[in-house]
Amino acid sequence: MGLLMAWDASRFNEVVDVAGYTENCLGLTGWTTGFETALQNLQRNVLAPFKDATSSVEEVVQGENTVVIRFSNEGTHAGEFLGVPATGRRVRWDVIAIIHTRDGKVVGMWSQPDLYGIYQQIKSGQSR
Q1: Which of 63, 71, 65, 62 is nearest to 96 (CA)?
Q2: pTM, whole model, 2 decimals?
């Protein structure tokens, strides 16, 4: 997990089943296959619309082949998101991610960002 958090893309294949990886970011992407596609979705759906985005891990629960992470993100709304043009507002939102592993590698993830919370903040200007 450290390589992912440190964003060492040259070594992702050491910890991720790059070709077989599947992911669903509920409300944003639907199911996708391939880690490169997942990274492109992350860039398009989170990194591009929210400049200076940061994440903070709030809780981690580990099982034999599953890790559940609850984390919060914060960033400045700098590009269109959920049909709303950039507002320049600072927003914060929570995410739950269920990460599946097999043979020591990440093989998939299902994540649920608080899209309604983000939408409320960028439309009203009130942060949480």
Answers
A1: 71
A2: 0.82
